[in-house]
Specification:
The complex is a heterodimer. Chain A is mainly α. Helices cover 66% and strands 0% of the residues of chain A. Chain A contains seven helices and no strands. By secondary structure, chain B is mainly alpha-helical. Chain B has one domain. In chain B, helix 2 runs antiparallel to helix 3. The longest helix of chain B has 16 residues. Chain B starts with a helix and ends in a 5-residue tail after the last helix. In chain B, 19% of the residues are buried. Classes of the chains: A mainly alpha, B mainly alpha. At the A-B interface, helix 1, helix 2, helix 3 and helix 6 of A face helix 1, helix 3 and helix 4 of B.
Chain lengths: 179, 72
Amino acid sequence: MKDPSSPLLQSPEAFKIYLTCLEKVGQTSSINAAVGKRDELLATQGATIAADQNGAAESSPAPLDTPAASPVVDTPSPEPSKVPSPSEVIAQQVLSKSTAQKTSSSAPPVPEVLKLAATGEGQAAPIQVSIVERRLSLLRNYDLDADLLLGKGAWIPRLLRFLVLVTVSSFCGSNAFST
Amino acid sequence: MISLGSIFSTKPEATPTPHVVALITRLEAEANVHPHDVSKQLALFEALLDTKLKSSHELVITRWEKMCEFVS
């Protein structure tokens, strides 16, 4: 934490990409820590800037016609409500997006008939179920059969060895016959 | 059905195209030259993110943390 004034740190787009990458790599647990660190750094930077501005204001001469300081009225401060920081908002966006993507990719689409059954409508209508084997799974089955039969290409060295053996034996045989 | 894929069943790793590699290389060079230019950093990050590769995501994480000195 050496450079809180990094422009990249202040960029919400960069932080969003960073959090997205954390989520894609599988370091979802690090997102909360990253949000806290960024907020802390930004707060540090904000405090530094405010201190600089105060220092500049104090160093400048005060105008003569400055009114006297108004008496401070102690008003009860309202209860500090938990407002999510910009970093937290970005993190929530990233996490909700990833959750939505996972849900849409893992859950199969619900047929309209099942939706009707779930809501209780159309109870008289029979539910038609059709099972269709996908072509991809057929191809995969063929692939698996070929792999089991051929041992994933392990038959090639065996075939080569066999061919060498046949060649050598025939060569020896021809030599034997010729002599 | 015997296919070449079944005989030589090596699953190819997802690799970016040479065009993408060249683009990322160029963007990285520009980002290195201008480390405080956020737009160049963002362009590099988005290009890396679009590759959908784990190594690219890790590179984004490392680069962001390094540039922000995020690692305590």
